[in-house]
Amino acid sequence: MRQGLLTWPPYGSTIRAVDLEDLFPSKPDDPLVALAKQDLDPMSIEELQARIELLKAEIDRVETHMKRAQDHRSVAEQLFKRESGEKPEPAP
Hints:
The protein is mainly alpha-helical. It has helices at residues 20-23, 31-37, 45-83.
């Protein structure tokens, strides 16, 4: 029997489960992946505290960037509403 693109198990199935990692592979050089895999055992308490402070600073940086992006998007949406003739909503 000839195997088609999609055949059922009794006929030599070509139907396979899909791994999301295959569809959307993480970036191999992603620093967050490397950070999460790093062994913390050899680090001293002081090194761990310094790491936490650096991570908190990075979180603040990302949150600031997100806020700027959200503000920029809101301004752009208001601008396009005016150009399309819609009555703009008051800014928060």
